[in-house]
Design brief:
228 residues; 8 helices; two-stranded antiparallel ribbon
């Protein structure tokens, strides 16, 4: 009677092992070529889930917006990011500027895109090139008719005051507003082109919140402290 096995026990074990563990084992064994190959595999595996989730989220947001409108869309985003902040991205409590920048970059690197960082006397500016989520959905054609993700038609506080705004990107103004409501100040200010996606978006972390432009507040329906 012939064997019906397709895989060996060793193959099954290796397929069920985390790629990270295989990378580390290859490094320990001095096999740098295998480590490089596995590192590329790990990148592809993570990107598969990463892109799947941002498409899934965008499709859910598209349904909410088309069925219930922009006010319910904002409520849904606020609820999601409140749970997210309390469950996954719990603030460390650090308030010094250096740590705030480092913590933000620790999150952005999870998008697996090249990042440029500059500093001047006023702020540190961070840009993924391209944006690892909203920007890539645009580049991948997610808003083209054959895919059909929604764009928010009307200008609103959750679109930075822009029209025809990509649905995934509404989380950016919502998160800015939530930061102000929780702590009284911005975590980071988004620098965006009009239309969004025309140029790489940037994050500006200001050393002195008094230097944050008033327009950064008004476009999300907030008032700059001290402004009339």
């Amino acid at each position: 009677m012939s064997s019906q096995r397709i895989f060996t026990d060793e193959e099954l074990k290796e397929m069920g092992t985390r790629t990270l563990d295989l990378v580390l084992a290859a490094i320990d064994a001095g096999d740098k070529e295998k480590a490089k190959e596995l590192a590329q595999r790990m990148y592809r595996e993570f990107n598969y889930l990463h892109d799947g989730y941002f498409t899934w989220v965008s499709a859910l947001l598209s349904f909410i917006y088309r069925r219930y409108g922009i006010e319910v869309l904002e409520e849904a985003e606020r609820e999601a990011h409140t749970i997210e902040a309390n469950f996954v991205f719990k603030p460390s409590g650090a308030t010094d500027f250096r740590t705030r920048v480092q913590e933000m970059l620790g999150g952005l690197r999870g998008h697996l895109q090249p990042i440029s960082i500059t500093e001047d006397d006023e702020k540190v500016t961070i840009a993924m090139e391209p944006c690892g989520s909203g920007g890539r959905i645009i580049r991948m054609g997610g808003y083209e008719p054959d895919i059909g993700l929604a764009r928010v038609e009307e200008a609103h506080r959750i679109t930075f005051g822009q029209k025809d705004f990509p649905i995934y990107c509404v989380h950016c103004p919502v998160m800015e507003a939530l930061d102000i409501e929780r702590s009284g100040e911005f975590g980071a200010v988004h620098i965006v082109s009009d239309p969004i996606g025309k140029e790489h978006c940037k994050f500006a972390l200001y050393k002195n919140k008094a230097d944050i432009p008033e327009e950064s507040y008004t476009r999300i329906g907030k008032q700059k402290p001290g402004a009339k």
